[in-house]
Each structure stands twice: as structure tokens, then as C-alpha cells.
Amino acid sequence: MAQIIESIPNISEGRRPEVVEACVDEIRSTPGCTLLDYSSDESHNRSVITYIGDAKAVEEASVKLVKKAAELIDLNHHEGEHPRMGAVDVMPFLPIKDCTTEDCIELSKVVGKRIADEAGVPVFLYEESATRPERQNLVKIRKGQFEGMAEKVQEPDWEPDFGGRRIHPTAGVTAVGARPPLVAFNLDLDTDDVQIAKNIAKIIREKDGGFKCVKSMGFEIEDEETGRKYAQVSCNMTNFEQTPLYRVVETVKFEAARYGVHVTKTEIIGLCPMKAMVDCAQYYMQTNDFDFEKQILENHII
Amino acid sequence: MAQIIESIPNISEGRRPEVVEACVDEIRSTPGCTLLDYSSDESHNRSVITYIGDAKAVEEASVKLVKKAAELIDLNHHEGEHPRMGAVDVMPFLPIKDCTTEDCIELSKVVGKRIADEAGVPVFLYEESATRPERQNLVKIRKGQFEGMAEKVQEPDWEPDFGGRRIHPTAGVTAVGARPPLVAFNLDLDTDDVQIAKNIAKIIREKDGGFKCVKSMGFEIEDEETGRKYAQVSCNMTNFEQTPLYRVVETVKFEAARYGVHVTKTEIIGLCPMKAMVDCAQYYMQTNDFDFEKQILENHII
């Protein structure tokens, strides 16, 4: 497989396994598409599906998924803790290998148009695909949720990018867009003073003047086994090529040192592209001339 | 592709491109086998071919390669700087993914027997596949080279493992065996005192009481562009799971510190399995619970 694009759609169903399975089957049955993972959250009444393939395979699987979800999920009868506006609520496309963000933006437009035409579900382009600044942020698009969407799309600024101003009566609207791969990354400290984690989180996150593409918060964590409490800096690395993980590790270390505090361990949640790890190995080992594409054996197979 | 075995045979031809191409074509034409690289050395009159696949594909490609090389290469007319005993001189099998050293040992026996039966080339099993301790070392097997081999195989201790005591009249004998993937790894120092590199090399290598599966030497290197001379610790990491690269980096750093000397950069030569790099990232970033197989996205595709 030369090109790899990853899609991680969220569907508004997390309680009826047969509906989730029927949706996931649309991915499984698409040639060239590989299902990596799926999981449901009952309290959110929402499921996350992860699959990869080249642009054509991901396009097919994504359109089929929206059609099936629109057939089986009725948001008029949907309850859950997580805000939502569509049967498929959000569908991001991430460039993993041999493709650019631009390729994923192009794919999001192709898929967006097909979803509107073939499933009758209007589409907002979001994140990197957004056609207006206020549409980059999914939270702003989703504000008002399914119940308020029929009215919202009548507003001058909120006509969907595809499908016109009439939402699907049961499946609502869907946000489709390109975004870089995200790595969820936590650093545990040898202190139970959560304020230290909060201070460090504020230093490293983009919002408060820290590193670009880093979102972070400080939490108090209780170890389930021992009951011991400790502080944690929890990060979402939204573009690990812009700000690599090692830069956050080293910054958290030297900022923690001010308090005599150390990083006890770090944790990557879920899937992680190998480049995020290899970039860190290259920094620490000073392999400055290493050619990731050519020298990693596996890159010749994928 | 689930299972990956890598083979890196050396053939005794580096001057006639048409012969090298004909041999490489045997790899190219084997379904399920991927040619990664090949290169020829004129002064050695020798070529290295690298390919991967599952056991069945590597078996087929390897047997075809020996047949073709035996047909086209006549060691009675071979001259070159590198010692050699066969048209295919040596054929190692390396476990890369979803297979063990034992799988590669098994493969080496299957391929060894087929080479003897189908190409008429007697085979010595070497390295991990060796049937006697003195056959682990290729240099000991090859001693006497092609010219002395007809006589050597008559000695009580030197009957080949497959094919009996009569060498192939033009293609000699071949060594086949399993070995772990090797990473060639150099560390440059900010000194021109080669003795410091030699001292450190001696500390880290297995032979002199250092780390298992590390071979190392100290060299003086002259930068081709600037003419500046510096000392280098050059390592062959013959099993990066036994002794990971970061352990060598950190040891070279603290041993160099005794002389006020630092590592300026390191270099990995050629191909490197991603796990060698990810293991280092895990150490430096303290991601101690990271699950390589499950959490590296690419492991779900390969």
C-alpha cells in the first residue's frame, strides 16, 4: 500500500451493538480499506471507528458508512452526554503516508459532496478544510446540536458547504475535514500538587503562548491500584511534525525542576504513527542525517 | 503481509551488471517477495541483494537465486578483494516481524536442502543455524576459499550439512543461516584523538567484556568536505533487542566524559527496523507501558 489516509469518524450510536456492527460492516466490506479499531461509549451514546486506505478506498468506505448510519440512526430519538448534530457526527481525514494535508482536503470535498448528493446529508467542511475561519472549530459548527440545526442553517453565515439549507430529517448534518494525526500524550509527575501540573500545562500549550499545536491541561490522578495521588500534564499533540513529542518532554522536565519535581513516566494513549516515535529517537540519539523514508525498513513495505 | 523475513545474500559478482540483473530478476519475479535494495562493489567483485517476504516467498526467491547464480557465475574465473567460497557466498535469514529466530533456522534448513538438491551446491548452516560451534562463524567456514574448498570438505569436521562432500565445480558451496537483524551504528566524537575512540570501543564490545551482541572499533575519520579529522566509535549491533542502541549511546557519552569529550552526532548505516528506533524513543521518553505491536499505527498494516 503506497498511500495511507486514516479516517476516525464518530457516529451517534453507542448503545445498540447491532447498529454499530452494521456501520462497521460497511468499512469491512470495502476493498482496500483496513478497519483498525472501533469502540462504543454507552454514556456518550457514541462510537468511534478507525480505518485506513488510499484516497479511493477511504472515499468509498466513508460514503457507504454515512449512508448506512443515516438509514439506521434517528437523532430525534438520540440521547447521550456528548453533543452531536449528525448520525455521523464528524469525519476527519488524516494524512499518514505518501500524502499531504492538501490531499486530505481534496478528499474531504469529494466525500462531502457525495454525502450530500447520495445520502441527502448536508456537510460542513471543518478544520483544515474549512471555507471560513469560524468553521475550523467543530465546537462552533455543532453549537445548537441536532435540535437547533434546522434553524441554524438558515442563518446567513451557516449555510452548509454541500447539500443546501435543509438538514436530513433523521441524520442531521455531518462535519467532514482534514486534520493532522493527533497523539494523546500524558506525563506523570512525582508530586501530588496538581497546581504544578496546571502551571506547566499553561506554559507548554499554544493557547497561552506555548508550543504551536499543543493543547494541555493539568490533572490530579488517583492510581487505581495503590490509591496514590499524583499530578499529570495531559497533552493533545495536534501536529507532531510541528511540535515533536520530545520537545514537550524536555520542557516539562526543566519546568518541573523548578519545583524539585520530576517526570516519573509518560504515556501515549491509543494509536501513534511510527514517525512520532522515530522523530524522538532521532533527537535523543543525535542521528541527524537519518532518512526516515529510506532507512526505516518497514517504509519499504507499507 | 503478516510475517516478514529478510534475506541479504552476497553473490560473487560485482563487475558484470547483466549477471547481477539476471540474479536480481529472480527476486523480482517471485510473487510475495519484495526487493528492497541491491548494490555491487567492483573491487570486491561482489553484490549484496536485500529482499523480504514470508517464509514461503523467501524460500522460493532464495532457491531461484542460487540456481541462477550457479548457472552464470564461475568461481574458477573470479577475482576480487573479498574472500568468497560460492557463487552465492552467504545467505542469511533475519526475523523482522511475526516470526522467531527458530522460524528462520527452520527456513535455512529447508532452503539449504533445496539448494543442495536442486542446484547441486553443498550448503553449510551457519550462525544461529550452525550444527557445530565452529560453524557459527562464517569466517571459519570460508577459510581456504573456493580454491581450497574441494579439499577442505574431505576433512572429518568439514562435511557440508547438505549435499555431501563434492563441491559444485563452478559455484562452490554456500553458507545459509539465521541471524538477528544487524544495525550498523557510528558515534562521532569531538576529538581527533583516535585512542579515545579505541578505548571506548573496547569498553562497550562483547569480546572484551562489554555489552552482549555489540561489536565495535575506534577509527580516525577525515571529513571529506572540510578535511577535519575526528575520532569515531563504529558499532555493529547484532541484536538490538538484547542490547538496544540507547544503551550504547549513553555508555559512550559517560565514558567520553572522562576525557571531556562529547558525542557530536550518530549515524545509522543502511536499513534499520523501526523497532530499533522506537525502543530508543521509549527509553528516553519514559513511555514504559507503550505496546509496540498495538500502538504503532503501521503495525496494523504491515
Automatic annotation (TrEMBL), chains A, B:
<dbReference type="InterPro" id="IPR037064">
    <property type="entry name" value="Formiminotransferase_N_sf"/>
</dbReference>
<keyword id="KW-0290">Folate-binding</keyword>
<dbReference type="InterPro" id="IPR051623">
    <property type="entry name" value="FTCD"/>
</dbReference>
<keyword id="KW-0369">Histidine metabolism</keyword>
<keyword id="KW-0808">Transferase</keyword>
<dbReference type="GO" id="GO:0019556">
    <property type="term" value="P:L-histidine catabolic process to glutamate and formamide"/>
</dbReference>
<dbReference type="Pfam" id="PF02971">
    <property type="entry name" value="FTCD"/>
</dbReference>
<feature type="domain" description="Formiminotransferase C-terminal subdomain">
    <location>
        <begin position="181"/>
        <end position="300"/>
    </location>
</feature>
<feature type="domain" description="Formiminotransferase N-terminal subdomain">
    <location>
        <begin position="3"/>
        <end position="180"/>
    </location>
</feature>
<dbReference type="InterPro" id="IPR022384">
    <property type="entry name" value="FormiminoTrfase_cat_dom_sf"/>
</dbReference>
<dbReference type="InterPro" id="IPR013802">
    <property type="entry name" value="Formiminotransferase_C"/>
</dbReference>
<dbReference type="GO" id="GO:0005737">
    <property type="term" value="C:cytoplasm"/>
</dbReference>
<dbReference type="GO" id="GO:0005542">
    <property type="term" value="F:folic acid binding"/>
</dbReference>
<comment type="pathway">
    <text>Amino-acid degradation; L-histidine degradation into L-glutamate; L-glutamate from N-formimidoyl-L-glutamate (transferase route): step 1/1.</text>
</comment>
<dbReference type="InterPro" id="IPR004227">
    <property type="entry name" value="Formiminotransferase_cat"/>
</dbReference>
<dbReference type="InterPro" id="IPR037070">
    <property type="entry name" value="Formiminotransferase_C_sf"/>
</dbReference>
<dbReference type="InterPro" id="IPR012886">
    <property type="entry name" value="Formiminotransferase_N"/>
</dbReference>
<dbReference type="GO" id="GO:0019557">
    <property type="term" value="P:L-histidine catabolic process to glutamate and formate"/>
</dbReference>
<dbReference type="Pfam" id="PF07837">
    <property type="entry name" value="FTCD_N"/>
</dbReference>
<protein>
    <recommendedName>
        <fullName>glutamate formimidoyltransferase</fullName>
        <ecNumber>2.1.2.5</ecNumber>
    </recommendedName>
</protein>
<keyword id="KW-0963">Cytoplasm</keyword>
<dbReference type="GO" id="GO:0030409">
    <property type="term" value="F:glutamate formimidoyltransferase activity"/>
</dbReference>
